[in-house]
């Protein structure tokens, strides 16, 4: 049984470490995240996304903030035209 504060991910979930791989990459490469509701958000600049233990804060347009539970992020990858390895191999 996991510790009371542990967060358990199933095989289909995106982990905090995978998302931090995008936000911490040098040089930064634009990426996208897909939410459980089907919405896809693009992160085109380094400081428009912050990954915390259970949430991700995004500012896709630079004008407002979106607080997203990591439980709702179901896929991720590099935006077309970005070079380098994708987080999960699904760059489309």
Write the layout of secondary structure elements.
Layout: H1 16-23, E1 31-35, E2 40-43, E3 49-51, E4 55-58, E5 66-69, E6 73-78
Antiparallel strand pairs: 1-2, 1-6, 3-4, 4-5
Task: Report strand order across the widest sheet.
Answer: 2-1-6
The DSSP helix count reads 1
- Report the principal-axis shape: globular
Rounded average pLDDT: 82
Helix content range: under 10%
Succession of helices and strands: HEEEEEE
User: Alpha-carbon distance between the termini?
Assistant: 37 Å
Q: How many E strands?
A: 6
Beta-strand percent range: 25-35%
pLDDT < 50 stretches: 1-10, 85-92
CATH A-level architecture of the domain at 16-78: Roll
CATH class of the domain at 16-78, named Mainly Beta
Gyration radius over CA: 13 Å
- What is the CATH fold-level name of the domain at 16-78? SH3 type barrels
Class of secondary structure makeup:
mainly beta
Q: Major beta sheet, specifics?
A: 3 strands, antiparallel
Model description:
The longest helix is centred in the N-terminal third of the chain and has 8 residues, at 16-23. β1 and β2 form a beta hairpin. It is globular and about 25 Å long. It starts with 15 loop residues before the first helix and ends in a 14-residue tail after the last strand. It has 1 helix and 6 strands. The chain has one helix spanning 16-23; strands at residues 31-35, 40-43, 49-51, 55-58, 66-69, 73-78. Strands 2-1-6 form a 3-stranded antiparallel β-sheet, with no helix packed on it. With 92 residues, it is mainly beta. It has a domain at 16-78: SH3 type barrels (Roll).
């Amino acid at each position: 049984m996991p510790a009371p504060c542990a967060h358990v991910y199933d095989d289909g979930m995106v982990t905090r470490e995978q998302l931090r791989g995008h936000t911490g990459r040098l040089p930064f490469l634009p990426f996208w995240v897909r939410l459980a509701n089907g919405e896809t958000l693009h992160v085109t600049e380094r400081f428009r996304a912050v990954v915390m233990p259970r949430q991700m804060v995004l500012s896709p347009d630079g004008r407002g903030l979106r607080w997203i539970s990591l439980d709702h992020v179901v896929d991720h990858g590099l935006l077309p035209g970005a070079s380098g390895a994708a987080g999960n191999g699904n760059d489309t």
